[in-house]
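Sample pair:
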Amino acid sequence: MMNRFRPNCLPTLIGSLPLDDHIKACELVFECVPDIPIWVQLPVFKQEGMLRQFLPGMPGFTLQQEKVSIDTSSENFDAEMVSFFEDYMAVTEGKKTLAESRFRLTPETAKGFFALLDRLNRTGTRPAAVKGQITGPFTFCTGICDRNDRAIFYDDQLRDAAVKLLALKARWQVQQFRPWGCPAIVFLDEPALAGFGSSEFISISREDIAACLGEVIEAVHADGGLAGVHVCANTDWSLLLDSEVDIINFDAYAYFDRFILYPEQIRRFIRSGRILAWGIVPTLNPEDIENESVDSLMNAWQEKTDQIEALGIDRKAILAQSMITPSCGAGSLSLSLTRKVLWLTRALADRIRLQR
């Protein structure tokens, strides 16, 4: 699939929107990014929070006063863990389908996914690709704690279960997108990678993070999907550039100067045929959104792609292997600012494609 897909600067979006109606959110997606539509998370619904949305099916999952945690002290925990790995083995050994397993998404927590499937069924044309997402394993395992407020990343058994849960939920999405006969993309949303190397995560090794990411990426690849990683701030980009991920979505608006510090890895990444998703439309600062225009963002895009070209990469390859996105999800913005972000993303991509 990777060898066949060239996005040619088509636009797509990142996860969340500030609406309370999944059908309207889906229509807004198709209005702005019909070529690579996504399923939308609506944070106004608490069950669609970044961590909580993908927790169902996890052994020990508890919810008390809107706080999620993993309760390993429960008398049923060991039995739940055994059942979990039995289900995992049944799926991976072909004895049970993902569609009948705990690893599928449900309308209760991922209504946007099913709204997208319904909209695709009613669409007469096949999109260039279709995009899903899942919380990345590092963000998930450092954000979810046990009853002692210790992140489950530090418990080998819980981390293993969580990564396998995410891997198969990502793979399930790829399978659900298969009937449309276009590339299926699943982004791993990893905002916590901005903290990799900080004192907060000083005891977590690069190798452990790479192994977690690799397991989810491999699951996406197992059914022919493309795996992307989205980081909405700065990180050690070599961790991702040296991985097997197909698409890296980075904040090109605010952190391009940090990303370009990895020239050799960027050269290898692009020359291997993989894709940069440029988060060049701002979302984090309302003032930036208000001040930017298609012209100003186009100037920024040209200046930044000139720097990538200066690394010795053919400009045609840069354009063929690029996507245009907002720098992050828009779930925390006002609706008016969100509409401007989506309009800028579409209009900028159109401008770039006209000048290719």
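The beta strands are 10-11, 61-64, 67-70, 130-135, 184-189, 226-231, 247-250, 275-281, 322-326.
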